[in-house]
Amino acid sequence: MGLFILRRLGVMLLTALCLTFIVFWLTNLYPNLEKLAKTQGNFRMSDEAVSSYLGDRGYLQPMPVKFGQWLGVLPGWVTEQEDGGTFGRCFEAGTPEEDRPNRCGVIQGDWGFSTVFKDDVGPTVATRLALTGKLMLCVLLLMVPSALIVGVLAGMREGSKLDRSLSTFSIATTATPEYVSGVIFIAVLASSKFGLSPLLAEWGWIDGKTLFLGSATSAMADATFWNFFLPVLTISLYGMGYIARMTRASMAEVMTAQYIRTARLKGVKFGDIVLKHALRNALIAPFTVIMLQIPWLLNGVVIVETLFNYKGFGWLLVQAASNNDIELLLAVSVVSVVVVLVTQLISDIGYVYLNPRIRIS
Amino acid sequence: MEPLTWTGSLSGLNFIFLLVLGLLALSISVSILTSLVPSSGARAVNSDGTLASDQGLSGFINMITGYLFYALIALVLVYLVGGVFMGPAAGIFGGMAQQFLPVWIGLVVVFALSVTYKRKLGLYGKLFDSTVGMIGFAIVLFWVLTGIMGGVFDLLITHDSLSQVSGMKNKLPGTPLRGAEEGDYQWFLLGGDNLARDVFSRLIKGSWVVVQIAPMATLFAFMVGITLGLPAGYYGGRLDTVLSFLANLILAFPVILLFYLLVTPEIVLTGIPNYMAVFLFVFPLIFVAILLNSRFYTQPSVRTPLLLVVLGVLGWLYLSLISSDGAIVETDTYTIPGLPAFLDGFDLDAGILVVFVSVVFVNSPTVFRIVRGLALDIKTRDYVAAAQTRGEGPWYIMLWEILPNARGPLIVDFCLRIGYTTILLGTLGFFGLGLESESPDWGSTINAGRRLLALYPHAAIAPALALLSLVLGLNLLADGLREESLRD
To answer: Which residues of B436-475 are buried (b: 16+ CB within 10 A; e: fewer)?
Structure first.
């Protein structure tokens, strides 16, 4: 088992390295750099001005060298200007010679400087990640229990009315991407002119103008049911259908097993059969699915944070990518790749632990 | 002129419609509740094998649910047929029903023909045995016909999808056209968007973008996935390790980050999408060449002309697809020449090419994994061993023994994946990537409409519902196909 985890960790590291290099390469292509120079300097720069701007800031070195510097295995670039000032990757102009570090990269814990937010990448990503963590936690708290309940209820009596209605419901949710359900929810529940809110306000059932708030910006400081429920519901709904269908399939399979029939013939109550005999075995497969669903939630997070204007990790990704903020984008992709790989690892290990029939020596 | 209401002169039916809808919802929830309580009156099997119908409370409720459902369908049909004959006099729904008349005719013809000959049509015919499958197929066919008729032949639209009409900005559905002339359609059926364009016509034009790209992109992704997945699963070993690592690499990328990296104007300038197109679009060629060669290589007199003709046509299509203006890759600094312009069959818009390539790129690793898994499973079967003993080549076994036996899950996944590709296209549009901002596709329209969502929701709701219904239809179709293919 230890060896298995070690090997997986090695593959993970290799994958993360390859992926960050791809991101690095794509963001460092010359047209991207040119755009960066023009947005940072001014839009009417001549070609020479662009190349001297980029050259001074170390952007025109060979790709592997730049990547090594970002990683922190190679010494950072140093530029000496004509007026005698010296600045480099690791220090600003005017730093005394003895205080200048040689290397600064990810290995040294320095994630670089964001050109969009004019701030260090590390703290920026950390604050945004905390906000998204709040969102994800609420999503998981809503999505997982409801998906499991729907799946178990549908799967315990295959082919019944309940099964058919719940299965249709889960198919419908998997067919509704976040940008569709979010738009519908805002129009129906959070618009002061259309949908349910004007009706409810007229009857005096709600205090404010709308049932829910269509923007989650205020939820960043203080999340309430009123301003936070719609984004959470929008993300949960899309992921829920898939987990529910997997749970249903696994539950339906377990319910046809011999030991369930034995329990029935013994005269055990149906409720007890479902809760005590079937449930534990039926939840092995959904566990894997839930873990593998988390990377997919990341997509939902990007869409929903854009739609509801919640300035978290997804919003950061969009900002970094649309402005070609290289170091921020690299940090964002490292985080998301690590999330993907760690959830895969947890799902594999958890599957082995939960399922006594599988042993990895 | 008066603005149209939703149902116009058929409004008298609305109360009955709502009543039936409410009663149906009530009876379904009651029947679910009663099904939780086991009752002695449930369906009983007699000793001679016949079934006795439900009795008692649950049977009664089921009967009522059935009747209410039929009543609801009948009412919807009344709205539709009334709309077809009365047009805008029957409100916005009536107007739309009349505009969609060619689609209705097409639907009825296809369904009539298919149901009549369903026993001769294989898996497609069996689809008409399952209600869910039929509903899904009807929805998908509706949008396909809408896309073709509206997008290619300009049949269904009421106004030009790009022209702006003064005074129609953000107008509600059913607003009469200001300053309408004699030949114009007199209303904006689904209102105007924030640039004063007709939402209804844009909806129809947008369906063509989806109907055009999504199935083709999925097909290409399947070609890539099959051509690489079969040998990975069949041979295993180092080839499998390398290919699986690459597939996992792509899968570990968040899709949106990948789109942002690939589908920006700066990346298009470097020509990377063109290189990817050259690489990804060659797989159908390889696939067909191996498919035919492995089957007919024992009869060179058949094989050689067949391959020449098929590969000639496909090669021309391939070269036309990847080259535009006589160049495959054209950047500021260098140009790779391609098919000269006079031989070029068709030009793909650069924006569409990028979208197409990135969607294929994102989808193919998943297909690869599915095909690899299926191949791993099927290669242990007896008929594969028999073929190996006969001395068949590995490619023959992969393409003519393993692939046909994996077709059931692959067809189902194909349907699901078209839906997923539709969602991806919408995502691209939602972030304003790839297609130009005035493109009528549903994702871009949702993106344009979402800024004024709380005040004028109709511009974003219409494409959102359209996308929802198409993907739902594809999911139901896949479900029906799965049910029917499991049956045999």
So the answer is: eeebbbbbbbbbbbbeebbebbbbbbbbbebbbebbbbbb
